[in-house]
DNA sequence: AGCCAATAAATTGTCGACAATCCAACTTGA
DNA sequence: TCAAGTTGGATTGTCGACAATTTATTGGCT
């Protein structure tokens, strides 16, 4: 049976990996559930060969854990892992902001200011409703990361870590997050970058992510997500 | 034909992945060379199934690059990639040192001091000959990383990034590195950790890695390794 | 009834073969 | 002679089937 969106990729394995990633991030495959190879193979209409390659890839992304002769399981979001992941984000995205402060071209900076204005306008028009910027080119963090100019850093953050990060963003109904505060922090970071103040940019980015993780922590501890074993 | 060391693992795929990793890191499979599936399958005495899974894993480790319908190639070490990778290391190991400054237990700190004394004695006895600490438990950096207590950080640094880092360490005959200077820096970092000075520990670790990368850069630019296309 | 051993079913790991794609050598025509 | 098209060989991608291992079920014993 065909699944939702069918992204035509060069190889079946890539295709399946992409679809599985989405399915897990969006919760269509529940956390902690077992990955049954025969079942999924039938579901996606492929043989187990490419499916297994996709699962190996997902293991590398940290979306599933595998045990020899037993199989793969979708990871379980929990507070400690979230904190650990976000601490890594602090280090990496802080560095990205620092690098961006010296390498980001003026027009890209202006384009980012325009994006923040757009976010501002959206908040004004929709009474502070959260702006969904999942992974697209409108995502402030992704823009900063790309501006770092560090290919390895970009790959790590956008291709290997972001799936899990998006999962945390999505599965915690972060109603207690304050979009206007986040926007102010984004603006402060961008100001530091525009002024080529690498130290400050890194500091602010770290603080920004640290604050987000604290909010997520509270949300997880008070929501059903965390308690659902 | 059996290859060198045969680490018995639960599954053939893991086994092959391990052996291939070693072969690439140690240069038995040369940089930039094509990975021929039929050839390797025959060489290791396995079918292409588990071999392909291993290659997918290696791609995740950044040891090979794959192109659809074309195949996999061993990466080419080059100065820019090295600098990018070491910048990430700065961010991540800097954070690890910071965390270690608050979480590292006293006995582990003492044990690390003892290790540094051992390194010192080795230098004294062998007229500054380089101490080979490739990946073992005698590796100062690995000890700090583990002391961070951040499981995600540990996994990323020790399981995903270290293969490439070891490759850089090994393939550049870093004769111009000064082991005594490195030892002094290690000691300063450990002092900061022992005093629970997280900020300082991070700063020193960053500086230490940055300095190492500069030395590596010079070594690569002046050695045949970098010019050998 | 409850627990342990033996057996059956299902799942994972591995293999060899076929299909699709790419690459190199060769032919053909201007 | 050179360029483009064609054909043959080799390699990668995919599949279905078998072997090995785990998990569930059944039966027997205390």
TrEMBL record, chains A, B:
It comes from the Bacteria. Residues 10-77 form the HTH gntR-type domain. The keyword Transcription applies. Transmembrane segments: none annotated. Keywords: DNA-binding, Transcription, Transcription regulation. InterPro entries: GntR_C (IPR011711), TF_FadR/GntR_C (IPR008920), Tscrpt_reg_HTH_GntR (IPR000524), WH-like_DNA-bd_sf (IPR036388), WH_DNA-bd_sf (IPR036390). Pfam families: FCD, GntR. PROSITE patterns: HTH_GNTR (PS50949). One of its GO terms (molecular function) is DNA-binding transcription factor activity. Gene3D superfamilies: GntR ligand-binding domain-like, Winged helix-like DNA-binding domain superfamily/Winged helix DNA-binding domain. The keyword Protein transport does not apply. PANTHER family: TRANSCRIPTIONAL REGULATOR, GNTR FAMILY (PTHR43537), TRANSCRIPTIONAL REGULATORY PROTEIN (PTHR43537:SF49). This is Transcriptional regulator, GntR family. It comes from Marinomonas polaris DSM 16579.
């Amino acid at each position: 049976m065909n699944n939702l969106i069918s992204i035509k990729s060069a190889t079946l394995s890539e295709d399946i990996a992409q679809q599985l990633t989405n399915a897990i991030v969006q919760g269509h495959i529940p956390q902690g559930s077992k990955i049954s190879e025969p079942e999924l193979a039938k579901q996606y209409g492929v043989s187990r060969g490419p499916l297994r390659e996709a699962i190996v890839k997902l293991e590398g992304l940290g979306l599933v854990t595998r045990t020899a002769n037993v199989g793969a399981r979708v990871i379980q979001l929990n507070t400690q892992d979230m904190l650990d992941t976000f601490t890594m984000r602090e280090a990496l995205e802080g560095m990205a902001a620092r690098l961006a402060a010296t390498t980001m071209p003026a027009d890209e900076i202006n384009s980012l200011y325009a994006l923040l204005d757009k976010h501002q306008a959206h908040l004004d028009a929709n009474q502070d409703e959260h702006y969904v910027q999942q992974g697209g080119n409108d995502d402030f963090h992704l823009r900063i990361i790309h501006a770092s100019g560090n290919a390895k850093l970009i790959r790590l953050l956008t291709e290997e870590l972001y799936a899990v990060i998006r999962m945390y963003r999505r599965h915690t109904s972060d109603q207690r997050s304050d979009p206007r505060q986040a926007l102010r922090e984004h603006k402060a970071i961008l100001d530091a970058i525009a002024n080529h103040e690498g130290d400050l940019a890194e500091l602010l980015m770290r603080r920004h992510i640290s604050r987000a993780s604290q909010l997520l922590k509270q949300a997880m501890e008070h929501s059903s997500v965390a308690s659902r074993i």
